[in-house]
Amino acid sequence: MKLQETYEVFARQWRKDPLQHVGTVVAPNGDLAAAFARTIYNEEAWVEMQVAARKNFIPAIEIREEGK
Amino acid sequence: MATLSDEALKQKIEKGHLIETTEEMTEGYKKALIQILLVQADTELMSAPSYYMAARSAPSMNTRLSAYAVIQDELGHAHITYQLLEDLGMDKEYLIYGRKPHEFKNPYGFDQPLETWVELVVANAYFDRAGITLLGDPFENTSYGPWKRSLVKIDKEELFHLRHGEVWMKRLCEAGGQAKEEIQRAADWMFPMGVEWFGMPDHLKRHTAQLEYKLKGKTNDELRQIWLSAVVPLSESCGIHVPAHFDEAQQEYVLDYEFPVDYDPSQKRWKFDSPVSWDQVFERWKKRGPYNEIYVKSIQKHYKDFMAMLNGGN
Ligand SMILES: [Fe+2]
Ligand SMILES: [Fe+2]
Q1: Taking a C-beta distance cutoff of 8 angstroms, is the pair B53, B115 a contact?
Q2: In angstroms, rounded to a whole number, what is the distance separating the alpha carbons of residues B244 and A56?
Q3: For residues B139 and B151, is the Cβ–Cβ distance under 8 A?
């Protein structure tokens, strides 16, 4: 059984920017995922950072060819 | 999405198509990708204990802080790269904590003891330059989207490691005397280590799956030239002698010794008068360097106990 969950990390550097995907962390819960995200992805002085469990993502469009 | 044939996939990649999921890969692509990522992940991970060994002799609070910041970055890079492998179906926990020391794929240079802070400085200048060279290539050229994106952060931080090494190397050489002598001693074993880092020359091995699938874009010799074109002028500007120079006629950097040569890890000495075959080099790499076990064990030591504790002792 997997005790760990995969979380995607989103952040932005300026208020004018949209949130962007910056990486992934694996953690046993959301609080730890947030803590890991803050320390691993500390390359910028972000104004916002969010983590979301990957399993909660719902593909509205599956990855497909470009320009189609 | 139907899986393409190997040929069709290569054609698509040639046109600049980025691969995003395992469903789009052929077996051959996936295998080559796992191989190259594993080398990167293991290299990032094993740089941490070797830099830590040297960081313990940092001469001041500031130098210690910078050294630990580099180590933190490297662990982050390892984490990101093992995560890419996990997304390809590998088990990250097993890769880090389940493998035997000799199964790690880091280069021979990170099987060596880094014994002084000066050696850390030269490692940042030479080995991190090798890292930037090797990762700058896929950042620009790779056909695997998730890897390309992960390298934005990694390249940025590698540049900081490199600057740390170069700035201190220059400063110590300006001081002259013992400081410069120590840099020279470190360069004597670390420069040829960096030359070897890029592997077999192209005339012995040119076409690889990694190039055909455009996981990377440059050959071993092209990458080695890029590294030499940074490291040789840096060393010369510091008054540090390295056994290579720019050849005007060939318009490229050439080594002043027959490559490859034998190495004595116990003395940290290259035997420049003992050229060897590449089979002998592979043999030496396979036997691993003196700190391979020590570094791997330092990473793995507390894992099992901790997991048992976390899971209520069962
Ligand atoms: Fe790194
Ligand atoms: Fe680095």
Answers
A1: yes
A2: 55
A3: yes
Q: Could you give the number of structural domains in chain B?
A: 1
Q: Which tokens sit at B276?
A: 């060897």
Asked whether the beta carbons of residue B153 and residue A22 sit closer than 8 angstroms, the reply is yes
Judge: B153–A3 Cβ closer than 8 Å, yes or no.
no
Give the DSSP H or E segment for B252: strand B252-255
CB interface of A with B, residues 31-60, below 8 Å = 39-41, 43
Q: What is the per-residue pLDDT across B85-115, written as a single tens digit (0 to 9) for each?
A: 999 999 999 999 999 999 999 999 999 999 9
What is the CATH classification number for the domain harbouring B115?
1.20.1260.10
Largest CA distance in chain B: 69
Query: What's chain B's Rg over C-alpha atoms?
Result: 20
Q: With CB atoms and an 8 Å threshold, state whether A43 touches B21.
A: no
In-domain check, residue B305: yes
Alpha-carbon gap, residue A48 to A17, rounded angstroms: 10
Q: In this prediction, does ipTM exceed 0.85? A: no
pLDDT digit string (tens) for A2-41?
578 999 999 999 999 999 999 999 999 999 999 999 999 9
Number of domains in chain A: 1
